[in-house]
């Protein structure tokens, strides 16, 4: 049960008694998702890191807070599936598009798009909430495939980092749904 209501009009409405179907998995609640605690951000590139919030190995999908403290780069890659993003702070964009995202800006990238993510120098770090369906396919300068990164690589990367910083690799498993 969340915080008790005081005078809210809905204060006498009871909660659903059996809110989960027998095979349903529990929800995920993470307070302060775009935290300033740097341990929680897993280095993804030399300049951009990721705080995992939700991971679906079966759907090859994950949600995260992507963060760059200053100028940042996620080099060119192609997405066979969609990507959603909501900008929390800072300034970022893709070299391939003419918009620049700042706090409050929403982005949807259609399946079949290649792009190069850049974060700008800004008084606040770039923080954006992303929903990504893998894989990312790394491209060389000619646009040819030179590697892939999917949810399994993401999980391995997160486990290694969390083990190293003392949070423990098992934390990552608590985000699986
Ligand atoms: Fe991307």
TrEMBL record:
What name has this protein been given in UniProt?
A: 2,4'-dihydroxyacetophenone dioxygenase
Lineage top rank: taxon: Bacteria
- Coiled-coil regions in this chain? none
Supply the CDD domains for this chain.
cupin_DAD
The record places domain ChrR-like cupin at: 38-124
Q: Does the UniProt entry include the keyword Lipid metabolism? A: no
**InterPro entries per record:** ChrR-like_cupin_dom (IPR025979), RmlC-like_jellyroll (IPR014710), RmlC_Cupin_sf (IPR011051)
Does the record bear Oxidoreductase in its keywords?
yes
Annotated GO molecular function terms are: dioxygenase activity
Alphabetically ordered keywords of this record: Dioxygenase, Oxidoreductase
